[in-house]
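S.,

Sequence below, as promised.
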Amino acid sequence: MAIFLNENSKIIVQGMTGSEGTRHTRRMLRAGSNVVGGVTPGKGGKSADFSDVRSGLFLPVYNSVGEAMAATGADVTVVFVPPRFAKTAVVEAIDAGIGLAVVITEGIPVHDTASFWAHACATGNKTRIIGPNCPGVISPGKSNAGIIPADITGPGRIGLVSKSGTLTYQLMYELRDIGFSSAVGIGGDPVIGTTHIDALAAFQDDPETELIVMIGEIGGDAEERAAAYIRDNVTKPVVGYVAGFTAPEGKTMGHAGAIVSGSSGTAAAKKDALEAAGVRVGKTPSETAELARSLVRA
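The prediction came back faster than expected:
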């Protein structure tokens, strides 16, 4: 099965007519995703040419998410809108009541993210937000919403949740012999929508996910909270990796959320918390993949 995204998902792309939106819409289409249109205010009524992907394919462009949903039945939006317009774009998607908003955009001010996340909560959490600053979500062989390469793995029995886009790709490739039910890149900003815990709960409930791989990184306490959740709620085997074992204290490393102060937020502290919850933690991505492989084979 799949979490959050499946072969029946109908995807629209906010910012589809921009360079990034066009490029990644083309990649999603080639992966077999059911992209049904795009949204660019002021360009409603026009169409975008994707005939290089499939002969005669022109996708309609709409002025708003609500208009696109009414015309196409879309239930997923992927946001490729520049940072200064991203808050407005996500709030529009929330107000339209779309079920899933995958926010790829990097560099959105934390205050803006906090604002649209609070708006989603205040309106009843009808829209699941993934991201921002994330690679998206893929259910191999079914659908792909975002920028995760679709050709590095196939469908299988592993569920993956990760803060890091690059490590998402690496673990998917290293475990391609087993394959994935879904992979979710949640993003590493200080404020995000879907969390490790949300994905862990969904994988726990998915009957075709046999093992979960969780990738975290230094900074904050998200991994410690996930460890507590695993201890109390997850019965499936979990393998983990925490990026940043060699990071010096007091430095900001990579994602905006990766800030370490003293022993708080260190990779070692996160590793200890995960292992105390029964998670097997690899010292490197490749070791993590091998741990996962051995558990599946067992």
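The CA atoms of residues 66 and 96 lie 5 Å apart.

Coffee later?
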